[in-house]
Amino acid sequence: MRTRISAALAALxxxxxxxxxxxxxxxxxxxxxLGRLTAVDRSTGNGTVYEYDAAGNRTRxxxxxxxxxxxxSAGLGDWQVATWQxxxxxxxxxxxxxxxxxxxxxxSYIPGQPSNxxxxxxxxxxxxxxxxxxDVSVYxxxxxxxxxxxxxxxxxxxxxxxSTVLMDGTARDGGAADxxxxxxxxxxxxxxxPAGAAYTRLNLRLASNGGEHPYAFFTRPALSIAVPQQEVVxxxxxxxxxxxxxxxxxxxxxxxxxxxxxxYGNGNDVLFLYVAGATTNGLMDLRSxxxxxxxxxxxxxxxxxxxxxxxxxxxxxxxxxxxxxxxAQTALPGSAREGGASNGDIANFNILGGFVTxPAGAAYRRLNLRLHTTGGQDPHAFFTRPxxxxxxxGQQQLTTWSSLYGS
Length: 407
Known about the structure:
This protein is an all-beta fold and 407 residues long. It folds into 3 domains: 12-65; 80-225, Jelly Rolls; 244-405, Galactose-binding domain-like (Jelly Rolls, Sandwich), CATH 2.60.120. The protein is 1% helix and 48% strand. The radius of gyration is 23 Å and the shape is globular.
């Protein structure tokens, strides 16, 4: 038996090779900080999610189906090809020299030097639940063209396209040699199924851009229900500022982004807030998505923060059931690291955080990442590793990032 810690999925994740009877299937077991099973993900693309109430009783067991033939072991299998102005195109699996190292690789090709042609390869149908958040990824490489991943959501008729989400990331230019993952870049999306959605498909696209004989290569497409070890959506900022929205900016010209050159790295994606030019006293607030809250329950919240010529702050806010009435807003203790955030090294950040009890009538809570401008020129605030979850009985210490994600 092999065991590994999977920072991408959980505090503790076991990858178990199957028995001889099911030699082509691996299962990954994910547990929360209390040791409860929260998910089983299978290499066949399906799995099961487990949910619990505040008392620890299992309340929901939800099987899900991921992408069939996700390892391309059956060739194209359920994957269907569609094209636009791409005569002579080829779509296949395992072009010699472009697969191996345990990876089957789907590839698309357009002959000649087209300026405006597409080859789309879509997965089979996977059922989804509106409002549930899905984690989608694929490894991609490109030669003289552009490789994209698109997450598509359809109505129950399987004909009405409700929405399309372009996956974040850029395919590895000139990559895919020998199928080694080091020769690919991972594309990803962290996305909620929209209202009315019944199915999703992954679209692996080759888009020509004037290059001669363009290729796109894809391997390891994956779809899973996001089972967080905490309740902050997109806590790693892996998918940009998805799940976070600008709520207030009375400061002048602003910018929000992730991974400003020089201010991220060492395994940390870093969100930044910025105000251009000279400033006066003002606020720039970026709020997380809504998280549930129970009146009288205690919640912890924390974030690693740094600041340049302004003040980086963390607040927790409680809302009524209408999601608009703010019942309470609390600034959490701590001081951000002045001049910090260099290279994303966590040693260049300070932790802001604390514990707050939800007031009467509370139904939701949000984190608020704030840049308070105080007159400095071009102020910045940097944030990474946000955490919020219901505190356990008698808890006095903030939960550490490593205890949730292993790194």
